[in-house]
Amino acid sequence: MSVVRTHMSVTLDGYVAGPNQSLDKPFGDGAEHLNDWMFALRTAREMFGEEGGETGASDDVFRERLQNIGSVVMGRNMFGGGPGPWGAEQWKGWWGDNPPYHVPVFVLTHYARAPQPMEGGTTFYFVTDGIESAMRQAKAAAGDRDVVVGGGANVIQQALRAGLVEELELHLVPMLLGDGERLLDKLGDTAPSFEPIRAVVGTGVTHLKYRVRK
Amino acid sequence: MSVVRTHMSVTLDGYVAGPNQSLDKPFGDGAEHLNDWMFALRTAREMFGEEGGETGASDDVFRERLQNIGSVVMGRNMFGGGPGPWGAEQWKGWWGDNPPYHVPVFVLTHYARAPQPMEGGTTFYFVTDGIESAMRQAKAAAGDRDVVVGGGANVIQQALRAGLVEELELHLVPMLLGDGERLLDKLGDTAPSFEPIRAVVGTGVTHLKYRVRK
Question: Which tops the pLDDT comparison, A185 or A134?
Answer without folding.
Answer: A134
